[in-house]
Amino acid sequence: MMKVPYTTAFITLFSLGLLFGFGRLRELFRKLVEWWKDSSNIHGYAPVSLGFEDFYFRRVYLRAQDCVSRPIASAPHAWIDVVERYSDDRFKTLKRTTNTSKCLNLGSYNYLGFAASDEYCTPRVVESLKKFSPSTCSARVDGGTTILHVELEACVAKFVGKPAAMITGMGYVTNSAVLPVLIRKGGLIISDSLNHNSIVNGARGSGAIVRVFQHNTPSHLEEVLREQIAFGQPRTRRPWKKIIVVVEGIYSMEGELCKLPEIIQVCKKYRAYTYLDEAHSIGAVGKSGRGVCELLGVDTADIDIMMGTFSKSFGSCGGYIAASKEIIEYLKFSCPAHLYATAISPTAAQQIISSIRVILGEDGSSRGAQKLARIRENSNFFRSELEKMGFQVLGDIDSPVMSIMLYNPSKVPAFSRECLKRNVAVVIVAFPATPLLLSRARICISASHTREDLLKALEVISEVGDLVGVKYFVAEPKKQDDGRVKMSPMTQSLRKVPRSVNSGFPNFLEDDSCLITL
Question: What's the whole-model pTM score?
Answer without folding.
Answer: 0.88
